[in-house]
Specification:
By secondary structure, the chain is α/β, with parallel strands linked by helices. It has 10 helices and 14 strands. Strand 12 and strand 13 form a beta hairpin. Helix 3 runs parallel beside helix 5.
Length: 308
């Protein structure tokens, strides 16, 4: 997969001395969905701002489809659609006028059929003649996405796109994003809904304190860094964990009916064999068992915590 965005040695220090980005290197492939995760203040929005030409970097280079973002600003910006985290929109214009105006800003000729399709895809067509101020928060967020798509960008940045959007609207918005990817649009998103990144993203990048901690394919990251939990359902409840079980990472649930055992799938010895043997010696009967994979959220917390 060829890179459509290439970031090399990117740093940003603000006037007050705050170092928001520290020598960031990152390549994003054409047509992929890339999720950028990190706590508040980690540098996500600054990174997006630099790539989109809204923030001037202190050092480093960024190219978009082979064009330098500073020397070839117009060429790079025309390829990018941006949905910012904060609502920045004229509330007294109609949906149709606002989206059409955004297309004109990039020098694109009028194309009512395309604008109609965007509004229909985002379930905004029946709202096209309404002033934006009359819409719900979720609908306003959809208008922001429609405006970002108005000039048919090759790359779409979504900074917390589903913040404040109800579940139904969120699911339909992700369907739209899936269709965009099918048409070759590269999508970079930040989100606090970790499950969205887990389900939608091809790759995940974790940023903490201005530095990229890890970049990995979503499934590979979970397999490589995730832990598993073995849950044993006991036939009879226990008042306390027997000392003879003696395996690190073993806990008794509050009701005394379950044993939870955390283990590393990549360790030479997981400890499961020892645990089962000890259970047998202790005379404990297990009626059922299951395993649970660590979620991306748990991995994310572990990664950021290791940088503290």
């Amino acid at each position: 997969m060829s890179s459509i965005i290439s970031i090399k040695g990117l740093s940003k220090t603000y006037a007050g001395g705050f170092e928001a980005l520290k020598s960031v290197d990152l390549d994003i492939g054409e047509g992929e969905i890339f999720a950028l995760l990190g706590p508040n203040g980690a540098g996500k929005t600054t990174l997006i701002g630099v790539v989109c030409g809204l923030v001037t970097p202190t050092a480093g280079t960024v190219t978009v489809d082979g064009h330098d973002i500073i020397r070839d600003f117009r060429a790079t910006r025309s390829r990018i659609g941006l949905v910012p985290q904060e609502m920045s929109i004229d509330m007294f214009t109609t949906v149709w006028s606002s989206v059409s105006f955004s297309r004109g800003l990039f020098g694109k000729p009028p194309d009512p059929a395309y604008i109609e399709q965007v509004l229909r895809d985002l379930s905004l067509w029946d709202k096209k003649d309404e002033q934006i101020r009359t819409l719900s928060g979720g609908m306003k967020r959809r208008v922001m996405i429609a405006k970002a798509l108005a000039h048919e960008p090759e790359i779409l940045f979504l900074d917390e796109p589903t913040a404040g959007v109800d579940v139904e609207l969120r699911q339909s918005m992700w369907q739209v994003i899936g269709r965009l990817r099918e048409h070759g649009v590269t999508i970079i998103l930040t989100t606090h809904y970790i499950e969205e990144a887990e389900q939608m993203a091809d790759r995940v990048g974790v940023i903490s304190r201005g530095e990229i901690v890890v970049v990995e394919e979503t499934g590979t990251l979970m397999n490589k860094m995730g832990r598993k939990q073995l849950i044993l359902y006991l036939s009879e409840p226990l008042a306390a964990l027997p000392a003879e079980l003696g395996v690190n990472g073993l806990e008794l649930s509050a009701g005394g009916t379950e044993l939870h055992f955390d283990y590393d799938t990549h360790a030479d010895r997981t400890g499961i064999t020892t645990l089962l043997a000890n259970l047998n010696r202790a005379g404990l009967s297990v009626r059922d068992l299951e395993t649970r994979q660590s979620s991306l959220e748990e991995i994310f917390v572990d990664l950021v915590g290791s940088q503290s």
